Amino acid sequence: MASGHEIGEEIEHAGHSNKNIALLIAVLALFLAFATAAGKGAQTAAISDNVQASDLWAFFQAKTIRTTALRTAAESLETELPTETNPAARALGDKQLKRWKDTIARYDSEPETGEGRKELAARAKGAESRRDTALAKYHHFEVASAAFEIGIVLASATVITGLVALAWIAGGLGLIGLGFMGIGAFAPHAVHLF
Description:
By secondary structure, this protein is mainly alpha-helical. 86% of the residues lie in helices and 0% in strands. α1 (4-80) runs parallel beside α4. The two termini are 58 Å apart.
């Protein structure tokens, strides 16, 4: 039979062990909060960049439609002008043809406003690239969050079961979570998850 002193030592050891487990849970919860916040921020950025890319591609398509309509009108006028016998009407037609061709060129590329088709396509591709990076970050932060959550559950189970191995696994999951947070923050395209 155990003496009172031995029982007191066991209770003290269990209390000290539970404090360590509680500290582990607190640290995992702290990093879970960081990973969750970073994941939500990346998700919001991905949605915003996706909307921007969609808007830019729609603007690009509108410019393409306008260009096509003007090009069709210009080609039609070009075929009609050689048959025009009235010099005033021909001069007016030439003037209109030049305006349309200038507008077509401006719709194709307008560096000063960034709203030519070439510039719109480049901006849309940039928004898509930012979206893809934000999604990659989001996925890594989600994996980190899952690792922290499972670690918290296992650490909590350690208190109930007394199996110290669960605490070690929880700590390992915490390290894995930190690793995925680092990948998400600094090298989101280094590991492809989805």
